[in-house]
Design brief:
The complex is a heterodimer of chains A (about 220) and B (about 675). With about 220 residues, chain A is an alpha+beta fold. Chain A is built from nine helices and eight strands. Chain A is elongated. The model of chain A has no long low-confidence stretch (mean pLDDT about 80). Among the domains of chain B are: about 170 residues, P-loop containing nucleotide triphosphate hydrolases (Rossmann fold), CATH 3.40.50.300; about 90 residues, Helix Hairpins; about 200 residues, no CATH class. The N terminus of chain B is likely disordered. Classes of the chains: A alpha+beta (about 220), B alpha/beta (about 675). Chains A and B meet through helix 4, helix 6, helix 8 and strand 7 of A and helix 4, helix 11, helix 12, helix 17 and strand 12 of B. The structure holds guanosine-5'-diphosphate (GDP) and zinc ion. Zinc ion binds next to helix 6 and helix 7 of chain A.
């Protein structure tokens, strides 16, 4: 995990340098990254080095876009919604934060924020899939499924769980983003209806499914 | 020559008949279809190295394959799964069967109204390349809900045969049989229906050529490997020469690293999208056709926070009437006194006496602790009918859809003791037979849950044989006695369960259960299930009763029984405040729980026991070490070490509770 984090941070770092036009290895080297790490990025097919100049490969560009998108969306969220203005702490938090966001969460944040195109510093946020879809109706905030009342409906926005096996189980039952779920009852256990299925799930699981309310 | 080769292709390498595997989500009617196809000629066994049970049978087919007349096709029922990427033991077994059994074809059963979920598996099968077809079962319920499925369109989108069916009414059976005989003609062919993320498609293209040939296509194997199926990696390493495992590992880890989400989720999303497209094309609702159903309202009531409770009480009452009075009363009487008492045993005793001259052997067979007169007679004539009646009732609960709703009603309580609502299934089964229920703890997901459930079954769930006698004995005495006994036992279940959930390491699983609609059970289906369960019981449990009797016989003959009685009687008299003669009842109770209770019954009738003593004795009897068959099964499931640990704990604990109860009752004067 730590290693992956470092790896992503390195991609981000190099990408930002390249984006800002500093492509020489020396320019990059004195910024928290070692020559070994640069070589390793090259070996993993993220960058190419030619005449001491660094370029992102196609893969590398894609990775960088994903990473920087998460980072900048996180900045926006902290800045706009949670109104953390202190520049240094906001930056540090965004760095921590971005590592915990999966694709669905990222898309939801993006939607929640109205698909922003720039970060608070004005740098571009690469668009994600959610930004290109035509139907950009004004979205309500996202709720966890257990906070809905009996009889209410919600469409799954994302599932946020640390336990992959729950994610796998839910998805093979057909509970995935986009599926509309109705809360049938909450006592003595939560019973949900979706498509033609009636299912009972633990409170703990319901809390990890995030939905947008529907009428 | 060519003919010969063709023939080989159509039979397994070991020369057996062609085989077909039934696959599907849980509760889609696979067992019913399996029963329709095979009739009674079925063999149920554990899948090698696992606790998962699978059934095999044979279908007689007419028709020809490659000029050879087809007579038989063997068919295997697999455990219900929601995915072929293994997450549970059941799913691993199903995947393994596809890999190792080398089936000629697959029949996938789908619950028509849940087409989309079924398609998630269909798409995985399409990637595998094994010839298969789809049965859209439970079509009647889909129609009731106003669902229309364009079968032809679906069939052409998937490129396979699709058959609508109502298994419980045998509708579609003819088409299915026709389909099966055609299935064996089909060639293996991978159908790329799902288009995954480019990264994944790319990884598949690079992985597939590196993998050794198997019964499943390289595309499908690659997807499983990407999903992190390490068992499979091991299997491939063992089965392929020059298998470049490092290269494979590298591609896998690179691909997985690229995605922020778990890769299984990314893959599943791809399938979900493909399934969604198919459903959009051929699955439609016609609201006008929809009938509002009584079944739905009834189903809602059964899990209603208020109405669910009176329903539960009524169900228990009916169960008592049916299993307790009819089964344990009338049926047992008939079997024990008439069939065994008047006919079988006298004959057997005669025969044994004439052909076996050695008296010790004779005694082992037909003596006081004789394997035939006690072991077999007891298990077949007493436990047998009770268990049979119980299974009929249990089958009705299962097929009506009530059982899963019961898990909802009880989830909260079970959560307190480290289990979840699903544990209600073995617990209810325990009221029929603890021995069988201990096997049924396998349905629980984690080791911790299985240990707790096993322990509680042994400790405080009285089986129907015992319940019958206890109720008969206490019922006539005083309502208070019964109430005190029930409270005492329930309290211990909660206390021990709670403590066990804190002490035993490991984790409990989350509760997640699908609730099928309420249905009117089909008698034939229930009788069929009961038949197999009783057969199972006879095969697995009866021998244990016989062995148990034999051990008791040895103890008796060697004089150890008397010694144990001597050793135990100070505890019985001192701690529990019971007469010394009660000791024998407890020890015999280990062999036959109801016999022990009956022994106490006799003492009570003679006026040797007062109300307090009866209350204490019965509570201890219920809490006490389970019958010997149960003990053997605990050994089988949990290992000897844990079994002995549990039994010692229970023995100690039961006496402790009995002693405390004795003191409390003497002190508070509610019974004297
Ligand atoms: N209404 C209806 N019920 C069915 C049909 N086929 C099976 N069932 C019921 O569905 C339930 C589950 O069937 P079972 O064979 O045990 O499912 P399995 O878990 O897939 O083996 C049983 O109660 C069956 O009686 C059908 O075609 N129509
Ligand atoms: Zn967006």
């Amino acid at each position: 995990m730590e290693k992956d984090k470092k790896y992503e941070e390195n991609i981000e770092l190099i990408g930002v340098h390249i984006e800002e036009g500093r492509v020489k290895i020396e320019d990059i080297l004195d910024h928290d990254i070692t020559r070994e790490e640069i070589i390793s990025l090259k070996e993993r097919g993220i960058i190419t080095i030619d005449a001491e100049k660094v370029h992102l490969t196609k893969d590398g560009r894609e990775m960088y876009n994903l990473i920087i998108r998460r980072h900048r969306l996180a900045e926006r969220l902290l800045n706009d919604i949670l109104t953390i203005k202190d520049e240094s702490s906001s930056e540090a938090q965004a760095c921590e934060f971005e590592h915990f966001l999966n694709t669905d969460v990222t898309e939801s944040i993006c939607t929640l924020l109205g698909h922003p195109t720039t970060c608070p510093h004005g740098k571009p946020i690469p668009p994600g899939e959610c930004c290109s879809t035509k139907r950009r109706e004004i979205e309500s905030v996202v709720y966890s499924l257990d906070s809905l009342d009996s009889g209410e409906n919600g469409r799954v926005a994302y599932i946020s769980t640390h336990d992959h096996s729950i994610l796998d189980k839910l998805s093979s039952m057909g509970i995935m983003p986009g599926v509309s779920i109705r809360i049938h009852q909450k006592q003595p256990a939560i019973v949900i209806l979706f498509e033609e299925t009636t299912m009972s799930i633990d409170f703990e699981i319901a809390r990890e499914i995030y939905v947008r309310k529907e009428s | 020559m060519i003919k010969k080769r063709n023939h080989d292709r159509k039979t397994n390498s070991d020369g057996s008949t062609p085989s077909i595997i039934l696959i599907g989500n849980p509760n889609v009617g696979k067992s019913v279809i399996f029963g329709l196809l095979t009739g009674r000629y079925v063999n149920v066994s554990n899948y090698p190295g696992t606790t998962v049970e699978i059934s095999r049978g044979k279908i007689a087919l007419t028709g020809k394959i490659d000029g050879h007349k087809m007579k038989e096709v063997s068919i295997v029922d697999s455990p219900g799964v929601n995915s072929l990427i293994p997450q549970s033991e059941d799913e691993r077994v199903t995947r393994d069967m596809l890999l190792r059994e080398k089936p000629h074809g697959i029949i996938q059963v789908i619950d028509a109204k849940n087409l989309k979920r079924g398609l998630l598996i269909t798409l995985q099968l399409a990637d595998m390349g094994i010839p298969f077809m789809v049965v859209l079962n439970i079509y009647d319920e889909a129609t009731e809900r106003g669902i229309e499925i364009d079968i032809n369109r679906l069939s052409s989108l998937l490129g396979i045969k699709v058959i609508p069916m109502v298994a419980t009414e045998r509708r579609g059976l003819g088409d299915l049989k026709k389909g099966i005989s055609k299935l064996s003609h089909l060639q293996r062919k991978t159908k790329k229906i799902t288009k995954f993320d480019d990264r994944i498609e790319d990884a598949i293209d690079r992985l597939a050529p590196l993998l050794p040939g198997a019964n499943i296509s390289g595309r499908s194997l690659s997807l499983m490997l990407l999903s992190g199926d390490d068992h499979l990696l091991k299997y491939l390493e063992d089965h392929g020469n020059d298998f470049e495992i490092d290269k494979v590992r590298e591609i896998i880890s690179k691909t997985r690293n690229f995605f922020r989400d778990p890769i299984t989720y990314v893959i599943q999303k791809g399938r979900q999208a493909a399934a969604g497209d198919i459903v959009n094309e051929c699955f439609h609702y016609d609201e006008r056709q929809k009938i509002s159903s009584v079944s739905k309202r009834l189903g809602d009531l059964c899990m209603h926070p208020f109405w669910g409770i009176p329903i539960l009480v009524s169900v228990l009452y009916i169960m008592y009437k049916f299993v307790g009075e009819l089964g344990a009363g009338k049926a047992v009487d008939f079997m024990e006194t008439v069939i065994f008492g008047e006919y079988l045993n006298p004959i057997v005793i005669k025969i044994t006496e004439t052909i076996i001259p050695v008296s010790i052997i004779r005694e082992a067979l037909i003596g006081e602790y004789g394997m035939i007169t006690v072991g077999i007679t007891y298990s077949v004539s007493i436990v047998g009918p009770i268990v049979g009646f119980f299974f009929i009732f249990f089958g009705v609960l299962e097929d009506s859809g009530y059982l899963p709703r019961l898990t909802i009603m009880s989830n909260k309580i079970f959560k307190r003791i480290g289990l979840n609502g699903r544990a209600v299934l073995p617990m209810v089964l325990g009221l029929g037979c603890d021995t069988m229920a201990t096997f049924a703890t396998r349905i629980l997901d984690t080791r911790k849950e299985r240990i707790i459930a096993t322990l509680l079954l042994a400790l405080g769930i009285p089986c129907s044989a015992q319940l019958g006698v206890v109720l008969g004995m206490v019922g006539g005495l005083s309502g208070r006695v019964l109430l005190i006994i029930i409270i005492t036992v329930l309290l211990q279940l909660i206390i021990v369960g709670y403590l066990a959930s804190k002490i035993i390491p490991g984790r409990s699983s989350y509760f997640m259960i699908e609730l099928p609609p309420m249905r009117i059970p089909k008698l034939s289906n229930i009788l069929n299930k009961t038949y197999f369960r009783v057969k199972w019981f006879m095969k697995e449990a009866v021998p244990l009763f016989i062995i148990g009797t034999f051990i008791l016989f040895l103890l008796d003959k060697s004089g150890l029984l008397v010694k144990i009685e001597h050793l135990a009687s100070p505890v019985v008299t001192g701690v529990l405040g019971l007469p010394a003669r009660a000791t024998e009842a407890f020890i015999v109770g280990f062999l036959r729980r109801d016999y022990g209770a009956a022994g106490l019954f006799l003492l009570a009738e003679k006026g040797v026991l007062d109300l307090i003593q009866i209350t204490v004795a019965i509570s201890v009897m219920i809490l006490f070490v389970p019958c010997i068959a149960n003990f053997f099964v605990i050994i089988k499931e949990q290992g000897i070490k844990r079994a002995i640990l549990m039994a010692s704990f229970i023995m100690f604990y039961a006496i402790l509770v009995g002693g405390a109860l004795n003191i409390i009752l003497r002190y508070i004067h509610i019974l004297n």
